[in-house]
Amino acid sequence: MTSPNPHLLSATTHAYLARAAESLQEAMVARDVPSRYACAHVAALRSAAALLAARAHPTPARRRQKNAWVLLAEVAPELSEWAAFFAAGARKRAAAEAGSTRSVTEREADDLIRDADRFLGVVESSLGLVPHTPVEGRTLVATAGPGGRTGAA
Protein backbone atom coordinates (compact mmCIF):
# COMPACT_ATOMS: atom_id res chain seq x y z
CA MET A 1 0.00 0.00 0.00
CA THR A 2 1.29 3.47 -0.79
CA SER A 3 1.90 5.89 2.02
CA PRO A 4 -0.80 8.48 2.47
CA ASN A 5 0.00 12.13 1.95
CA PRO A 6 1.04 13.34 5.45
CA HIS A 7 -0.62 16.69 4.73
CA LEU A 8 -3.96 14.95 4.30
CA LEU A 9 -3.91 13.07 7.61
CA SER A 10 -6.77 13.91 9.93
CA ALA A 11 -6.44 15.89 13.12
CA THR A 12 -7.46 12.70 14.95
CA THR A 13 -4.50 10.82 13.49
CA HIS A 14 -2.11 13.59 14.52
CA ALA A 15 -3.68 13.72 17.99
CA TYR A 16 -3.17 9.98 18.49
CA LEU A 17 0.47 10.29 17.41
CA ALA A 18 0.99 13.16 19.87
CA ARG A 19 -0.65 11.20 22.67
CA ALA A 20 1.48 8.15 21.82
CA ALA A 21 4.61 10.28 22.15
CA GLU A 22 3.33 11.66 25.48
CA SER A 23 2.67 8.16 26.82
CA LEU A 24 6.11 7.06 25.68
CA GLN A 25 7.66 10.00 27.52
CA GLU A 26 5.64 9.12 30.63
CA ALA A 27 6.96 5.56 30.39
CA MET A 28 10.54 6.76 30.18
CA VAL A 29 10.30 8.96 33.27
CA ALA A 30 8.04 6.78 35.44
CA ARG A 31 9.80 5.60 38.57
CA ASP A 32 7.94 2.35 39.17
CA VAL A 33 8.16 -0.65 36.86
CA PRO A 34 4.41 -1.34 36.43
CA SER A 35 3.78 2.27 35.39
CA ARG A 36 6.65 2.17 32.90
CA TYR A 37 5.26 -0.99 31.33
CA ALA A 38 1.65 0.23 31.27
CA CYS A 39 2.56 3.63 29.77
CA ALA A 40 4.72 1.99 27.10
CA HIS A 41 1.89 -0.37 26.16
CA VAL A 42 -0.56 2.53 26.01
CA ALA A 43 1.91 4.39 23.76
CA ALA A 44 1.88 1.44 21.36
CA LEU A 45 -1.92 1.29 21.50
CA ARG A 46 -2.17 4.99 20.66
CA SER A 47 0.27 4.52 17.78
CA ALA A 48 -1.97 1.76 16.45
CA ALA A 49 -5.00 4.02 16.90
CA ALA A 50 -3.31 6.69 14.78
CA LEU A 51 -2.80 4.23 11.94
CA LEU A 52 -6.36 2.95 12.28
CA ALA A 53 -7.71 6.51 12.22
CA ALA A 54 -5.85 7.09 8.97
CA ARG A 55 -6.58 3.79 7.19
CA ALA A 56 -9.64 2.08 8.65
CA HIS A 57 -13.00 2.34 6.96
CA PRO A 58 -16.23 2.26 8.98
CA THR A 59 -18.17 -0.99 8.85
CA PRO A 60 -21.83 -1.73 9.53
CA ALA A 61 -22.67 -1.22 13.19
CA ARG A 62 -23.99 -4.75 13.73
CA ARG A 63 -20.63 -6.46 13.27
CA ARG A 64 -18.82 -7.89 16.25
CA GLN A 65 -16.37 -5.41 17.77
CA LYS A 66 -12.67 -6.21 17.51
CA ASN A 67 -9.81 -4.96 19.60
CA ALA A 68 -7.25 -2.54 18.16
CA TRP A 69 -4.61 -5.23 17.62
CA VAL A 70 -6.97 -7.41 15.57
CA LEU A 71 -8.06 -4.39 13.54
CA LEU A 72 -4.45 -3.33 13.01
CA ALA A 73 -3.55 -6.73 11.58
CA GLU A 74 -6.52 -6.49 9.21
CA VAL A 75 -5.99 -2.88 8.13
CA ALA A 76 -2.18 -3.06 7.96
CA PRO A 77 -1.18 -6.70 7.42
CA GLU A 78 2.46 -5.65 7.20
CA LEU A 79 2.21 -4.81 10.91
CA SER A 80 0.57 -8.06 12.00
CA GLU A 81 3.68 -9.22 13.89
CA TRP A 82 3.69 -5.98 15.85
CA ALA A 83 -0.03 -6.40 16.52
CA ALA A 84 0.46 -9.95 17.82
CA PHE A 85 3.39 -8.85 19.98
CA PHE A 86 1.51 -6.03 21.68
CA ALA A 87 -1.70 -8.06 21.97
CA ALA A 88 0.29 -10.65 23.93
CA GLY A 89 1.25 -7.99 26.48
CA ALA A 90 -2.28 -6.70 27.10
CA ARG A 91 -2.88 -8.88 30.18
CA LYS A 92 0.41 -7.79 31.72
CA ARG A 93 -0.55 -4.16 31.11
CA ALA A 94 -3.92 -4.72 32.79
CA ALA A 95 -2.20 -6.29 35.79
CA ALA A 96 0.33 -3.46 35.94
CA GLU A 97 -2.46 -0.86 35.77
CA ALA A 98 -4.23 -2.70 38.58
CA GLY A 99 -1.15 -2.16 40.75
CA SER A 100 0.49 -5.57 40.55
CA THR A 101 4.18 -5.17 41.32
CA ARG A 102 4.90 -8.75 40.24
CA SER A 103 3.25 -8.63 36.82
CA VAL A 104 6.33 -7.38 34.95
CA THR A 105 10.04 -7.20 35.51
CA GLU A 106 12.21 -4.13 35.10
CA ARG A 107 13.75 -5.71 32.01
CA GLU A 108 10.32 -6.32 30.46
CA ALA A 109 9.34 -2.70 31.09
CA ASP A 110 12.57 -1.37 29.57
CA ASP A 111 12.25 -3.67 26.56
CA LEU A 112 8.64 -2.64 26.02
CA ILE A 113 9.58 1.04 26.10
CA ARG A 114 12.14 0.44 23.35
CA ASP A 115 9.65 -1.66 21.35
CA ALA A 116 6.86 0.92 21.68
CA ASP A 117 9.33 3.60 20.63
CA ARG A 118 10.31 1.61 17.52
CA PHE A 119 6.67 0.88 16.75
CA LEU A 120 5.79 4.58 16.88
CA GLY A 121 8.51 5.18 14.28
CA VAL A 122 7.16 2.38 12.08
CA VAL A 123 3.66 3.86 12.27
CA GLU A 124 4.96 7.35 11.48
CA SER A 125 6.76 5.97 8.42
CA SER A 126 3.65 4.03 7.35
CA LEU A 127 1.73 7.29 7.45
CA GLY A 128 4.28 9.05 5.24
CA LEU A 129 5.75 11.07 8.10
CA VAL A 130 9.39 11.45 9.02
CA PRO A 131 9.80 9.14 12.02
CA HIS A 132 10.96 10.58 15.32
CA THR A 133 14.44 9.79 16.60
CA PRO A 134 14.20 6.56 18.63
CA VAL A 135 15.34 6.41 22.24
CA GLU A 136 18.59 4.62 21.31
CA GLY A 137 19.55 7.45 18.97
CA ARG A 138 18.90 10.32 21.34
CA THR A 139 21.73 12.08 23.11
CA LEU A 140 21.85 10.98 26.70
CA VAL A 141 21.94 13.45 29.54
CA ALA A 142 25.52 14.35 30.47
CA THR A 143 26.52 13.70 34.05
CA ALA A 144 29.66 14.40 36.01
CA GLY A 145 31.63 11.19 36.30
CA PRO A 146 34.62 10.28 38.46
CA GLY A 147 37.03 13.14 38.73
CA GLY A 148 34.39 15.61 37.56
CA ARG A 149 34.60 14.52 33.92
CA THR A 150 31.45 14.78 31.90
CA GLY A 151 30.20 11.66 30.18
CA ALA A 152 27.02 10.05 28.98
CA ALA A 153 24.71 8.73 31.66
A few lines on this structure:
The protein has 153 residues and is mainly α. 58% of the residues lie in helices and 4% in strands.
Key terms:
153 residues, mainly alpha, two-stranded antiparallel sheet, globular, disordered C terminus
Unreliable parts: 137-153
End-to-end distance: 41 Å
Helical content band: 55-70%
In N-to-C order, the SSE pattern is HHHHHHEE
Largest sheet strand order: 1-2
- Per the principal axes of the C-alpha atoms, what is the gross shape? globular
Number of helices: 6
Q: How much strand content do the residues show?
A: under 5%
Mean pLDDT: 84
By secondary-structure content and strand pairing, the structural class works out as mainly alpha
Task: Count every beta strand, where a strand is a DSSP E run of 2 or more residues.
Answer: 2
How does this structure look, described?
With 153 residues, this protein is mainly alpha-helical. It has helices at residues 11-29, 33-55, 68-75, 80-88, 90-97, 106-126, and strands at 142-144, 150-152. The protein contains 6 helices and 2 strands. A hairpin with a 5-residue loop joins β1 (142-144) and β2 (150-152). α1 packs antiparallel against α6 (106-126), α2 crosses α3 and α2 packs across α5 (90-97). It is globular and about 40 Å long.
